[in-house]
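user: At home tonight, take the chain set out below, taking as long as you need, and be ready to discuss the fold:
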Amino acid sequence: MYRFLLSIFISSLLFLAACNSPFTNKNKGYSSITFPDKTYQVFSQENYPYTFEFPTYGKIDNNVNYFGTSKKTDSWINIHFPTMGATLYISYSKMKTNQLDTLIRDAYTFANNHNSRASFIDDSLFSNEQGVEGVFFHIGGEVATSYQFFLTDTTTHFFRGALYIDTTPNEDSLAPVNAFLYQDLKHLVNTFRWK
């Protein structure tokens, strides 16, 4: 009988303690995002075999390390978008003889690495007014990267980019940021040229 009364007393205390927590209203949507105005600047630095326009709200980082190896002398860069928590990772390869097929296969492999989580992967060929050719990948679903691309002159240069947002993938909540940055990626590849 003593144990029964003790358990009722403890249950009552827990019930009363739980009822005193304040109620917090939860939003039924995602937070509103204010995007900056679209203005662009030119990236054209010495010792880099390419030039392009990128947004003024993007910050260039040329101190790139890949598995502990500095890639600054290999013309690799990252473009950080701090207000959106996004980074465009860019790698560059000066091609050796008969290396184009391997680099293209690697680019497709990187995009297809998201197959297990992707709802679709669209690839589209393009060329810009400067004669640069490439493939643009749009990857849908709960994936770490929605956009990847590569650009080449098919003989000497190979340039690859992948956009990552530093958060848990959620296609719905990231859709406005992805759509906003997609326009910037398209502007980058359309203004891209080899030096």
In short: The mean pLDDT is 87. The chain is about 25% helix and 35% strand. Helices lie at 2-19, 100-112, 171-191. Residues 171-191 form the longest helix (21 residues).
